Request: fold
Amino acid sequence: CMACVTALASWGAALVLAVILCLLGEKRWRAAAWAAAGAAVVAVPWLARNYIVSGVFLSHAAELAEPWRKSSALAGLSARVVRNSAYYGPELFWRTMFRWPEGPGMALLKWLTVLLGLAAVGAGLREWGLRGWRKLLAVYLLVYAALHLELHLQSGRYVFTALPMVVPLLLLGAAAADRRLGLKGKGVLGMCAVSLALSLAPVFHVVRTSLWGRTPINTPAQKTLAWIRENSSPLDLFAADLDGRLYLLADRQTVRLPKVRDPQAFRSWLLSAGVDYVLVEPTDYFMTTVSGLSAHDPIPLARLKGFLAGDPIRLMFQDREEGTEIYQVR
Reply:
Protein backbone atom coordinates (compact mmCIF):
# COMPACT_ATOMS: atom_id res chain seq x y z
CA CYS A 1 0.00 0.00 0.00
CA MET A 2 2.81 2.39 0.88
CA ALA A 3 4.49 1.82 -2.46
CA CYS A 4 1.31 2.55 -4.37
CA VAL A 5 0.84 5.98 -2.78
CA THR A 6 4.24 7.14 -4.04
CA ALA A 7 2.69 7.22 -7.51
CA LEU A 8 -0.14 9.53 -6.39
CA ALA A 9 1.64 12.68 -5.27
CA SER A 10 4.35 14.07 -3.02
CA TRP A 11 2.25 13.29 0.06
CA GLY A 12 2.53 9.59 -0.80
CA ALA A 13 6.31 9.64 -0.90
CA ALA A 14 6.32 11.63 2.36
CA LEU A 15 4.12 8.99 4.02
CA VAL A 16 6.44 6.15 2.99
CA LEU A 17 9.46 8.06 4.27
CA ALA A 18 7.69 8.87 7.56
CA VAL A 19 6.81 5.22 8.20
CA ILE A 20 10.40 4.12 7.58
CA LEU A 21 11.76 6.91 9.82
CA CYS A 22 9.40 5.92 12.64
CA LEU A 23 10.54 2.31 12.46
CA LEU A 24 14.18 3.38 12.44
CA GLY A 25 13.54 5.65 15.42
CA GLU A 26 12.26 2.64 17.36
CA LYS A 27 15.35 0.66 16.27
CA ARG A 28 13.17 -1.82 14.44
CA TRP A 29 15.79 -2.30 11.77
CA ARG A 30 14.29 -5.41 10.20
CA ALA A 31 10.79 -3.93 10.00
CA ALA A 32 12.20 -0.75 8.42
CA ALA A 33 14.15 -2.82 5.87
CA TRP A 34 11.05 -4.86 5.00
CA ALA A 35 8.98 -1.69 4.66
CA ALA A 36 11.56 -0.15 2.31
CA ALA A 37 11.89 -3.39 0.32
CA GLY A 38 8.12 -3.79 0.04
CA ALA A 39 7.76 -0.23 -1.19
CA ALA A 40 10.57 -0.75 -3.70
CA VAL A 41 9.01 -3.91 -5.17
CA VAL A 42 5.94 -1.96 -6.30
CA ALA A 43 7.53 1.44 -6.83
CA VAL A 44 10.58 0.44 -8.91
CA PRO A 45 8.58 -0.69 -12.01
CA TRP A 46 6.61 2.57 -11.86
CA LEU A 47 9.79 4.62 -11.50
CA ALA A 48 11.38 2.74 -14.38
CA ARG A 49 8.34 3.47 -16.53
CA ASN A 50 8.62 7.19 -15.65
CA TYR A 51 12.29 7.24 -16.64
CA ILE A 52 11.60 5.58 -19.99
CA VAL A 53 8.75 7.96 -20.81
CA SER A 54 10.02 11.27 -19.41
CA GLY A 55 13.70 10.83 -18.54
CA VAL A 56 13.16 11.24 -14.77
CA PHE A 57 12.35 8.57 -12.19
CA LEU A 58 10.02 10.69 -10.05
CA SER A 59 8.92 14.20 -10.97
CA HIS A 60 8.65 15.25 -7.32
CA ALA A 61 12.26 14.21 -6.68
CA ALA A 62 13.40 15.99 -9.85
CA GLU A 63 11.69 19.20 -8.70
CA LEU A 64 13.32 18.95 -5.28
CA ALA A 65 16.73 18.36 -6.85
CA GLU A 66 16.55 21.13 -9.46
CA PRO A 67 17.80 24.01 -7.23
CA TRP A 68 20.72 21.87 -6.03
CA ARG A 69 22.19 21.70 -9.53
CA LYS A 70 23.41 25.29 -9.12
CA SER A 71 26.58 26.29 -7.31
CA SER A 72 24.61 28.64 -5.03
CA ALA A 73 22.10 25.96 -3.99
CA LEU A 74 23.01 25.93 -0.29
CA ALA A 75 22.82 29.71 -0.06
CA GLY A 76 19.44 29.62 -1.76
CA LEU A 77 18.03 27.05 0.68
CA SER A 78 17.41 29.57 3.47
CA ALA A 79 15.80 31.99 0.99
CA ARG A 80 13.48 29.23 -0.29
CA VAL A 81 12.49 28.22 3.23
CA VAL A 82 11.74 31.83 4.24
CA ARG A 83 9.75 32.60 1.08
CA ASN A 84 7.82 29.33 1.24
CA SER A 85 7.04 29.87 4.94
CA ALA A 86 5.77 33.36 4.14
CA TYR A 87 3.56 31.82 1.43
CA TYR A 88 2.23 28.63 3.05
CA GLY A 89 1.59 30.09 6.51
CA PRO A 90 -1.03 32.60 5.33
CA GLU A 91 -2.22 30.19 2.62
CA LEU A 92 -3.09 27.57 5.25
CA PHE A 93 -4.35 29.56 8.23
CA TRP A 94 -5.61 32.75 6.59
CA ARG A 95 -6.67 32.02 3.03
CA THR A 96 -8.05 28.52 3.75
CA MET A 97 -9.28 28.59 7.36
CA PHE A 98 -9.79 32.18 8.53
CA ARG A 99 -10.28 34.40 5.49
CA TRP A 100 -10.06 37.85 7.05
CA PRO A 101 -10.87 40.54 4.46
CA GLU A 102 -8.00 42.43 2.85
CA GLY A 103 -7.52 46.04 3.89
CA PRO A 104 -5.28 48.58 5.63
CA GLY A 105 -3.87 47.19 8.85
CA MET A 106 -5.14 43.67 8.17
CA ALA A 107 -1.63 42.25 7.61
CA LEU A 108 -1.07 42.23 11.38
CA LEU A 109 -4.29 40.28 11.94
CA LYS A 110 -3.32 37.86 9.16
CA TRP A 111 0.04 37.03 10.74
CA LEU A 112 -1.49 36.87 14.23
CA THR A 113 -3.87 34.25 12.81
CA VAL A 114 -0.91 32.30 11.42
CA LEU A 115 0.95 32.35 14.75
CA LEU A 116 -2.14 31.34 16.74
CA GLY A 117 -2.86 28.58 14.22
CA LEU A 118 0.67 27.19 14.54
CA ALA A 119 0.40 27.34 18.34
CA ALA A 120 -2.92 25.48 18.26
CA VAL A 121 -1.52 22.77 15.96
CA GLY A 122 1.48 22.37 18.27
CA ALA A 123 -0.84 22.07 21.28
CA GLY A 124 -2.91 19.56 19.31
CA LEU A 125 0.16 17.42 18.67
CA ARG A 126 0.93 17.46 22.39
CA GLU A 127 -2.65 16.37 23.14
CA TRP A 128 -2.48 13.66 20.49
CA GLY A 129 0.73 12.26 21.91
CA LEU A 130 3.98 11.06 20.41
CA ARG A 131 4.15 7.52 21.75
CA GLY A 132 3.84 4.34 19.73
CA TRP A 133 2.07 4.60 16.39
CA ARG A 134 0.78 8.07 17.26
CA LYS A 135 4.14 9.66 16.54
CA LEU A 136 3.65 8.78 12.85
CA LEU A 137 1.39 11.82 12.44
CA ALA A 138 4.02 14.22 13.80
CA VAL A 139 6.81 12.66 11.73
CA TYR A 140 4.66 12.70 8.60
CA LEU A 141 3.77 16.38 9.03
CA LEU A 142 7.42 17.21 9.67
CA VAL A 143 8.56 15.38 6.51
CA TYR A 144 5.75 16.87 4.42
CA ALA A 145 6.48 20.40 5.65
CA ALA A 146 10.23 20.01 5.14
CA LEU A 147 9.78 18.81 1.54
CA HIS A 148 7.51 21.70 0.59
CA LEU A 149 9.49 24.37 2.41
CA GLU A 150 12.54 23.26 0.41
CA LEU A 151 10.68 22.88 -2.89
CA HIS A 152 11.23 25.77 -5.32
CA LEU A 153 7.62 25.50 -6.58
CA GLN A 154 4.66 27.06 -4.77
CA SER A 155 1.04 26.00 -5.09
CA GLY A 156 -2.01 26.28 -2.88
CA ARG A 157 -2.98 22.71 -3.76
CA TYR A 158 -0.21 21.42 -1.50
CA VAL A 159 -2.14 22.87 1.44
CA PHE A 160 -5.23 20.78 0.73
CA THR A 161 -3.32 17.52 1.28
CA ALA A 162 -2.30 18.66 4.75
CA LEU A 163 -5.79 19.77 5.82
CA PRO A 164 -7.05 16.30 6.94
CA MET A 165 -4.23 16.27 9.51
CA VAL A 166 -3.91 19.95 10.38
CA VAL A 167 -7.63 20.62 11.02
CA PRO A 168 -8.10 17.84 13.65
CA LEU A 169 -4.88 18.94 15.38
CA LEU A 170 -6.08 22.55 15.33
CA LEU A 171 -9.34 21.49 16.96
CA LEU A 172 -7.51 19.36 19.54
CA GLY A 173 -5.29 22.31 20.44
CA ALA A 174 -8.26 24.70 20.60
CA ALA A 175 -10.14 22.23 22.82
CA ALA A 176 -7.17 22.04 25.19
CA ALA A 177 -7.07 25.84 25.45
CA ASP A 178 -10.84 25.87 25.91
CA ARG A 179 -10.55 23.53 28.92
CA ARG A 180 -7.75 25.55 30.50
CA LEU A 181 -9.77 28.75 30.20
CA GLY A 182 -12.94 27.08 31.47
CA LEU A 183 -14.99 28.07 28.42
CA LYS A 184 -16.91 24.77 28.34
CA GLY A 185 -16.64 24.32 24.57
CA LYS A 186 -17.63 27.87 23.68
CA GLY A 187 -14.12 28.70 22.49
CA VAL A 188 -14.03 25.86 19.96
CA LEU A 189 -17.56 26.63 18.77
CA GLY A 190 -16.70 30.33 18.45
CA MET A 191 -13.56 29.53 16.42
CA CYS A 192 -15.56 27.31 14.06
CA ALA A 193 -18.28 29.95 13.73
CA VAL A 194 -15.72 32.64 12.86
CA SER A 195 -14.08 30.38 10.26
CA LEU A 196 -17.44 29.59 8.68
CA ALA A 197 -18.59 33.22 8.69
CA LEU A 198 -15.37 34.43 7.09
CA SER A 199 -15.65 31.79 4.35
CA LEU A 200 -19.20 32.69 3.30
CA ALA A 201 -18.32 35.71 1.14
CA PRO A 202 -15.44 34.02 -0.76
CA VAL A 203 -17.48 30.85 -1.33
CA PHE A 204 -20.46 32.91 -2.55
CA HIS A 205 -18.16 34.79 -4.95
CA VAL A 206 -16.70 31.53 -6.30
CA VAL A 207 -20.15 29.97 -6.79
CA ARG A 208 -21.58 33.10 -8.43
CA THR A 209 -18.61 33.45 -10.78
CA SER A 210 -18.64 29.74 -11.64
CA LEU A 211 -22.35 29.72 -12.45
CA TRP A 212 -22.93 33.12 -14.04
CA GLY A 213 -19.64 34.97 -14.42
CA ARG A 214 -17.29 34.61 -17.36
CA THR A 215 -13.63 35.37 -16.75
CA PRO A 216 -10.45 34.38 -18.60
CA ILE A 217 -9.87 31.74 -15.91
CA ASN A 218 -13.20 29.92 -16.07
CA THR A 219 -14.12 30.52 -19.73
CA PRO A 220 -13.07 27.73 -22.14
CA ALA A 221 -11.06 29.08 -25.06
CA GLN A 222 -13.61 27.85 -27.59
CA LYS A 223 -13.57 30.93 -29.84
CA THR A 224 -9.78 30.97 -29.77
CA LEU A 225 -9.54 27.32 -30.79
CA ALA A 226 -12.18 27.83 -33.49
CA TRP A 227 -10.16 30.71 -34.96
CA ILE A 228 -7.00 28.60 -34.94
CA ARG A 229 -8.73 25.73 -36.76
CA GLU A 230 -10.36 28.03 -39.33
CA ASN A 231 -7.50 30.45 -40.03
CA SER A 232 -4.33 28.38 -39.76
CA SER A 233 -2.95 25.33 -41.51
CA PRO A 234 -1.93 22.04 -39.84
CA LEU A 235 1.55 22.86 -41.18
CA ASP A 236 1.75 26.13 -39.22
CA LEU A 237 3.88 26.16 -36.07
CA PHE A 238 2.51 27.76 -32.90
CA ALA A 239 4.40 28.88 -29.79
CA ALA A 240 2.65 28.84 -26.40
CA ASP A 241 3.37 28.36 -22.72
CA LEU A 242 1.05 25.34 -22.60
CA ASP A 243 2.35 23.76 -25.81
CA GLY A 244 1.05 20.27 -25.10
CA ARG A 245 -2.48 21.46 -24.37
CA LEU A 246 -2.68 23.53 -27.55
CA TYR A 247 -1.45 20.59 -29.62
CA LEU A 248 -4.12 18.29 -28.17
CA LEU A 249 -7.00 20.78 -28.42
CA ALA A 250 -6.26 22.42 -31.77
CA ASP A 251 -4.22 19.74 -33.56
CA ARG A 252 -1.47 22.22 -34.37
CA GLN A 253 2.27 21.69 -34.00
CA THR A 254 3.38 23.71 -30.99
CA VAL A 255 6.62 24.61 -29.27
CA ARG A 256 7.01 26.05 -25.81
CA LEU A 257 7.87 29.71 -25.36
CA PRO A 258 11.48 30.17 -24.20
CA LYS A 259 12.35 31.84 -20.92
CA VAL A 260 14.22 34.90 -22.21
CA ARG A 261 14.37 38.51 -21.03
CA ASP A 262 15.67 40.26 -24.13
CA PRO A 263 13.20 41.25 -26.89
CA GLN A 264 15.76 40.78 -29.63
CA ALA A 265 16.68 37.32 -28.38
CA PHE A 266 12.99 36.42 -28.29
CA ARG A 267 12.36 37.61 -31.85
CA SER A 268 15.50 35.85 -33.08
CA TRP A 269 14.22 32.64 -31.51
CA LEU A 270 10.84 33.00 -33.22
CA LEU A 271 12.50 33.30 -36.63
CA SER A 272 15.07 30.55 -36.10
CA ALA A 273 12.43 28.14 -34.79
CA GLY A 274 10.15 28.86 -37.74
CA VAL A 275 7.22 29.96 -35.57
CA ASP A 276 4.16 31.20 -37.48
CA TYR A 277 1.85 32.16 -34.58
CA VAL A 278 2.20 32.95 -30.88
CA LEU A 279 -0.67 32.26 -28.48
CA VAL A 280 -0.92 34.53 -25.43
CA GLU A 281 -3.24 33.19 -22.70
CA PRO A 282 -3.92 33.68 -18.96
CA THR A 283 -1.20 32.37 -16.66
CA ASP A 284 -2.81 33.09 -13.27
CA TYR A 285 -3.29 29.39 -12.52
CA PHE A 286 0.27 28.31 -13.35
CA MET A 287 2.32 26.71 -10.58
CA THR A 288 5.27 29.07 -10.27
CA THR A 289 8.57 29.06 -8.41
CA VAL A 290 9.67 31.49 -5.71
CA SER A 291 12.42 32.86 -7.97
CA GLY A 292 10.31 33.11 -11.12
CA LEU A 293 13.27 31.88 -13.18
CA SER A 294 12.51 28.17 -13.50
CA ALA A 295 11.46 26.42 -16.69
CA HIS A 296 8.08 25.99 -14.98
CA ASP A 297 7.48 29.74 -14.87
CA PRO A 298 5.61 31.40 -17.75
CA ILE A 299 6.85 34.62 -19.30
CA PRO A 300 5.01 37.48 -17.51
CA LEU A 301 2.18 38.61 -19.79
CA ALA A 302 3.23 42.27 -19.83
CA ARG A 303 6.75 41.32 -20.90
CA LEU A 304 5.51 38.84 -23.53
CA LYS A 305 3.17 41.39 -25.09
CA GLY A 306 6.03 43.88 -25.17
CA PHE A 307 8.15 41.34 -27.04
CA LEU A 308 5.38 40.92 -29.61
CA ALA A 309 4.75 44.63 -30.22
CA GLY A 310 5.81 46.06 -33.58
CA ASP A 311 6.51 44.89 -37.11
CA PRO A 312 6.67 42.31 -38.54
CA ILE A 313 4.57 40.69 -35.79
CA ARG A 314 0.83 41.41 -36.07
CA LEU A 315 -2.10 40.88 -33.72
CA MET A 316 -4.54 38.63 -35.62
CA PHE A 317 -7.06 37.63 -32.95
CA GLN A 318 -8.14 38.83 -29.51
CA ASP A 319 -10.89 37.77 -27.15
CA ARG A 320 -11.09 39.64 -23.85
CA GLU A 321 -13.61 37.21 -22.34
CA GLU A 322 -11.27 34.27 -22.88
CA GLY A 323 -8.21 36.42 -22.19
CA THR A 324 -6.37 35.26 -25.31
CA GLU A 325 -4.44 36.89 -28.13
CA ILE A 326 -2.89 35.36 -31.26
CA TYR A 327 0.00 37.04 -33.05
CA GLN A 328 1.24 36.19 -36.54
CA VAL A 329 5.00 36.18 -36.85
CA ARG A 330 5.36 35.97 -40.64
Observations:
- The chain has a mean pLDDT of 83.
- The two ends are 55 Å apart (CA to CA).
